[in-house]
Amino acid sequence: MSSLFDQFLSTSEAIEVVGERNFLQAMLRFEAALAQAQAATGVIPQAAAQSIIGTCKVDLLDVSKIVRDSAFAGSVAIPLVKMLRDTVALFNPEAAPFVHYGCTSQDAIDTAMALVTREALVLIRADVQRIVAALLQLAGQHADTPMLARTLMQPACVTSFGLTCANWAAPLVRSLQRLDDSAERALQLQLGGTVGTLEKMQGQGAEIARLMAQALGLSVPLMSWHTQRDSWVALGCELGLLTGSLGKIAKDLVLLSQFEVAELAEPLEAGRGGPPSMPHKHNPVASMVALAAAQRVPQRVATLLAAMPQEHERAAGAWQAELAEWPQLLMSVHGSARALALALAGLQVNPKRMRSNLNAVRASLPKEAAKEWFSPDLKQHAAQLARQQVAALRAQSQADGV
Amino acid sequence: MSSLFDQFLSTSEAIEVVGERNFLQAMLRFEAALAQAQAATGVIPQAAAQSIIGTCKVDLLDVSKIVRDSAFAGSVAIPLVKMLRDTVALFNPEAAPFVHYGCTSQDAIDTAMALVTREALVLIRADVQRIVAALLQLAGQHADTPMLARTLMQPACVTSFGLTCANWAAPLVRSLQRLDDSAERALQLQLGGTVGTLEKMQGQGAEIARLMAQALGLSVPLMSWHTQRDSWVALGCELGLLTGSLGKIAKDLVLLSQFEVAELAEPLEAGRGGPPSMPHKHNPVASMVALAAAQRVPQRVATLLAAMPQEHERAAGAWQAELAEWPQLLMSVHGSARALALALAGLQVNPKRMRSNLNAVRASLPKEAAKEWFSPDLKQHAAQLARQQVAALRAQSQADGV
Amino acid sequence: MSSLFDQFLSTSEAIEVVGERNFLQAMLRFEAALAQAQAATGVIPQAAAQSIIGTCKVDLLDVSKIVRDSAFAGSVAIPLVKMLRDTVALFNPEAAPFVHYGCTSQDAIDTAMALVTREALVLIRADVQRIVAALLQLAGQHADTPMLARTLMQPACVTSFGLTCANWAAPLVRSLQRLDDSAERALQLQLGGTVGTLEKMQGQGAEIARLMAQALGLSVPLMSWHTQRDSWVALGCELGLLTGSLGKIAKDLVLLSQFEVAELAEPLEAGRGGPPSMPHKHNPVASMVALAAAQRVPQRVATLLAAMPQEHERAAGAWQAELAEWPQLLMSVHGSARALALALAGLQVNPKRMRSNLNAVRASLPKEAAKEWFSPDLKQHAAQLARQQVAALRAQSQADGV
Amino acid sequence: MSSLFDQFLSTSEAIEVVGERNFLQAMLRFEAALAQAQAATGVIPQAAAQSIIGTCKVDLLDVSKIVRDSAFAGSVAIPLVKMLRDTVALFNPEAAPFVHYGCTSQDAIDTAMALVTREALVLIRADVQRIVAALLQLAGQHADTPMLARTLMQPACVTSFGLTCANWAAPLVRSLQRLDDSAERALQLQLGGTVGTLEKMQGQGAEIARLMAQALGLSVPLMSWHTQRDSWVALGCELGLLTGSLGKIAKDLVLLSQFEVAELAEPLEAGRGGPPSMPHKHNPVASMVALAAAQRVPQRVATLLAAMPQEHERAAGAWQAELAEWPQLLMSVHGSARALALALAGLQVNPKRMRSNLNAVRASLPKEAAKEWFSPDLKQHAAQLARQQVAALRAQSQADGV
Asked: How far is CA D344 from the centre of its chain?
């Protein structure tokens, strides 16, 4: 399914979370929660709800037929709802008309995407936290390890490896916080009915929404967000920012791992990093994954933003474009986070080489300039900042339960 | 200056705010605040600070020479600092070495960009607030005005024009809130020295930063954000989200203003909207401006995100790319907000046509379907939601001092 | 596999062409052609080549294991080559070292992508040709059918539906020509060995490349294009241009199919275009698919362009990003072309409504303006152009064997 | 005008070519050619044409007033035509109605953009040719200079610096060819009248177009391309491809110029490359400019592609977005080409360091691996390819009059 090149740029967990089966199951959770809430508010009969809820199991449905039929229908909800209704009708024909009652495709699909995204965010957060933990430990440990500071890709002055690590960690700590805020706003129930007015809900729309959101663990929006995509796309932007910050780490790792620099190296794993015929190759595979994500994700975010002007009550094309980009966004972000989590956990640090690279610069300069800009003692400024950062970032992380 | 096509896609105010003169003045405010803080902390002599501060006036400098020289230097800070230093030296030669003391170009430029951005945000906010006010008024006034609801560009059911307006307003109210949060985090002092360690600040770096930030009305970051671009680019994302939400309004305006639909029209102004030879033309010029912004801005945001992986302590290319996109981003966003503020303030609403379009759909359908989906009575669901929305959005706006 | 939302935005044929199985088969075709050419030039033993060629069948390999292992290896070629070598070794251990002899992963993968792309282009071309044929027929048939011409979404003057169709067709005729040129340059053998120097080919590199290219039906590049991506990405740009031209048609279709305009309608197929509960809905599903493609593909092209600066002899991240975008690009383009081919083949044209919309504009204007700008007689200018266009486009199409 | 950051990312020549004055002058050339052709075909009086042609001089108009008024009109053509008409009327009132006769704003603007683009392409071509010349010379000179070949940012094998240069040059030679083809198709007269039907040209439209195109040195399109943007945007794509190929060179230059690698260096110019306080800094400023372009231009191209679906006979927003991006595209591309032309003309090559970096890798490996992959003798494969490339590229360049 065109996923050949996503295998090593993403993770099996993320691929499964955004996969067909899990997505359809999430849609069925929507349908079950809807039936339950509509029964509780008297909008549909209790017995119908029972039948519907009992049938909302992905194992009861023919997933590949739904996927196939969606191509013709132009929507995945139409064949899913039809099959669900037909299956319900086998057991309880009177319940069938109450399947997906008063709802539109977008209600089920947007809600399912929110549920699936929540799962993906759990994966992403866990790996980002591992990265932060690894970096803060390195930052503390190497607060005093002097290292060339480079600007415009040329030696500029002295920093410490600890400060470098703190610099990498700080944006991630902020990302975790912003992701939380953003997810809270974005992971909302979608419930609008055909055109956002819940016109078939017999005046119980607000209560049904409340019950469903509670059951599904989602927020209740002020009103349906069929074409109000800002909170949702804001979450996409956050994922873009996270990918950019991870990409910064990966870019530095790649640069610092060059043979001629050799200050860092990704952990060496048998069978990874190069073809068997070239034992000398020690490719920075994890960084490569994070860099690929950092090149693809910005355009994904652009597509989400460009798709925001959605016509009238529901769009023709823009919503579908957004939907199709979203799972790939989640896959890329987790691919990047996981790759760096593994690489940073076993990062090989070479303080001797940091020192000798610094010395080589000094040796190449007149004494005065060497002393002013490249004295190893200059590390003290970096060390102090590194220690402050680590303390502040640790405090912040703990305050946020990171 | 390539600005010919920005004239009508932006505003003269925004163009001035991000213009050369204002930007250089903002850089000079940085230099003055730096001298003042360094004198207060004893890092440079008080007399030197006096001379520097007195010279930090854009009128004293040859703006066009600085601009010209920047092309050669590859940085606007280098010729500015040189000219400032030379000018200071005319009056007080001993002060000259203390100009821009211990700082790097990026410190002055990032800080200036933050100052300039703050001015642009004032412009943007004011126009978005005018849009929100106009929309909430229309939403209340037309809560009960029935209107076709359209999905996938086809009639689907009934809504009210009031609900449509509430739908347009809600994302803007949220944008104003998020912009505030985001700006607070993004509008930070930049102060790192050559490589982020403030190595020439004699241990007074933190205090100098505190004083400067206070003087300039900016936040103090945990540490320099030379290559930690997340908070800054997050503000760019917010501007992208705002542009998308404005684009949604513009797209609907254009569609509802079509001759065959004619439910809305932008206010008619003499000399606008069409060539004099075609008096029948009533072009939706404001919406056109907002739509153009909605097509350009997502790619600007993508460039900002793609530029996040900045190498080592300061980048070669990525930072410069980000800088160059930013003013154009601000210009586009204000162009869009201003255009819609003017258009919505005088929006022509045609409830009769809304009714007759609805009736035309009903007339085309079998009685049963016409009644189920297009009875004007269905407006009641929309009306109720519209009123709730208006109340909630007003409350939210007031709580936030919008 | 995240393909749920690609099902109805692409086609089953395109999904299969870029799918895992077909891609791995294409890689095996590379390996077989390599062995054959190396044997013919005496670089490897003939018997080894026989064994390798006989084993290069996707049915002999465990596809899902290769895919799984690629995640760890960071490359799909490493596990494929390993499995191929192991399988060859079962039958002929002496042949095993000659599998993939002197090649790099990128040789096999880029070549396979070229082979797969050629298959996808056949699909795309066929549907674009169907669109052109349908449009030229409509253009001829309706050369004289007067129709409102609209600029900035407002009535401006008179055109004919025939000219509109010719306007839609012309860019597609050019696209077919440019695609041919571009494909000829882009569909090249990749063969460079580890770093582009073919250092293990015993001086037979050029001859091996010639033989392989001949066997695979690809062009021979001047030299390996490991990091010379221009010809390849140029093909991606062409696909972007085609998608934009298809998007233009789709946008007009959607606008002209609005209930209030009703000049055109996509063919109605049972079960498509709306949920069963809303028989009045006649959603322009095909146009929606083409519009979604037109929103996603530009960013895909941007990613390809942004990935061009690939480091040194082979890149870390940029090449992988390019690879992962490519199949999705092909899927989107074919989805768009197929959808419009179906829609235009059965397009419902309503000349009466075109006339009555035109009359409505006339009726709304002072006599003078109505006569100057909206007299149906103005169609004659359009009719003449339409007929010229159709003739020219037919000639061009035939000349190119379109 | 927000150009502060474009100064050093572009060139003064390019900024002038796409500037207001030159653009308005190009529009006036359109108006003059129109009057002349309309007089020649008897559509307007000869005397009127004389007056109009005599007035089509930018010095006679108030440029800043036109620019200012365009903001209100939403088009630069409306105030220009008005001022031109008013000025003509001063001398020859009877000629005034024949100004811009039968044309639309887009006719003048698109044609002017084509004229201006042609000028920019002359600048761009000249610098790309200088780059090609410099690279082919280096490629010949250093065909035998051994150099580490690096893949995934790690040493992989041996190449020669000559082959590296040939690798950089080849895409540029192709770009020059493709740019020529593409420009020939893109640099067309725009002439459609209000809606593309030339309805006021008294049947002389085709002849008027032929005469005008001849006078302006542009191609005559089959029909007006108001919403057929493919040939035009194809030129934008070519510029994107060129920028990507230049970016590849710049990325390698930056990497090979790192202190720890030191195989290359940009020429050192006084006052460039670093602040005066840091004499040790030798920043790769030219590469930085090219890298910034390579990060910005892909999104510009994406905007052009995304703007292709332009509604009906002329678009609301998409055309304006395209217009505004185009000059900045040209500015970026020339900035990149010029910067690299200067840098490569004086490139500092360090063959000793190439050799010692290679030796260092050898020394780090077991003898067997060192010999197999890093023997300096391996350069012979690269040398042979380099010589072939240089010959082929020279032949190609000369054949194309490059």
From this structure: 19
Cα–Cα distances in angstroms (integers) from residue A369 to residues A81, B82, B295, C273, D280, in the given order:
74, 21, 50, 73, 7
Instruction: Report the relative pairing of strands A348-349 and C154-160 from DSSP bridges.
Output: unpaired
Min mean pLDDT across C44-48, C240-244, D67-71 is at: D67-71
Across the interface, of D153, D283, D357, the residue whose CB is closest to A154 is D283
Chains that touch D (3 or more CB pairs under 8 A): A, B, C
Taking each helix axis from N to C end, the angle separating B161-186 and B230-256, rounded to the nearest 10 degrees, works out to 160
Give the per-residue SS3 of chain B. CCCCCCCCCCCHHHHHHCCHHHHHHHHHHHHHHHHHHHHHCCCCCHHHHHHHHHHCCHHHCCHHHHHHHHHHHCCCHHHHHHHHHHHHHHHCHHHHHHCCCCCCHHHHHHHHHHHHHHHHHHHHHHHHHHHHHHHHHHHHHCCCCEEEEEECCEEEEEEEHHHHHHHHHHHHHHHHHHHHHHHHHHCECCCCCCCCCCCCCCCCHHHHHHHHHHHHCCECCCCCCCCCCHHHHHHHHHHHHHHHHHHHHHHHHHHHCCCCCCCEECCCCCCCCCCCCCCCCCCCHHHHHHHHHHHHHHHHHHHHHHCCCCCCCECCCHHHHHHHHHHHHHHHHHHHHHHHHHHHHCCEECHHHHHHHHHHHHHCCCHHHHHHHHCHHHHHHHHHHHHHHHHHHHHHHHHCCC
In angstroms, the CA D31 to CA D25 distance is 10
Answer whether A369 sits within 8 Å of D280, measured CB to CB: yes
Beta bridge partners of D147: D159
The model's pTM is 0.98
Cβ atoms of A147 and A64 within 8 Å: the answer is no
Half-sphere exposure of C224 (CA within 13 A, CB side): 31
Residues in B closer than 8 angstroms to C282, CB to CB, are 154
Buried/exposed code over A156-193 (b: 16+ C-beta within 10 A; e: otherwise): bbbbbbbbbbbbbbbbbbbbbebbeebbebbbbbbbbb
Rounded Cα distance, A137 and D151, in Å: 31
* ipTM entry: 0.97
The alpha carbon of A269 is separated from its chain's Cα centroid by a whole number of angstroms, namely 26
Task: Give the pLDDT confidence of D263-301 residue by residue, as tens digits.
Answer: 999 998 755 666 667 777 889 999 999 999 999 999 999
Cβ contacts of A188 on chain B, cutoff 8 Å: none
Q: What are phi and psi of C201, to 5 degrees?
A: -95, 10
CB-CB contact of A302 with B298 (8 Å): yes
CA dist D273 → A122, A159, D263 (Å): 46, 21, 18
* Domains of chain B, first to last: 6-102 (1.10.275.10), 104-187+225-402 (1.20.200.10)
Take residue C104 and report the two structure tokens written for it: 């790099």
DSSP category for residue A223: S
Tokens representing residue D227 in the block: 């919403």
What distance in Å separates residue B293's CA from the closest CA in chain D?
7
Picking from A289, A296, A293, the residue whose alpha carbon sits closest to that of residue A340 is A289
Partners of C256 on chain B (C-beta within 8 Å) are none
pLDDT (tens digit per residue) in C278-334: 777 889 999 999 999 999 999 999 999 999 999 999 999 999 999 999 999 999 999
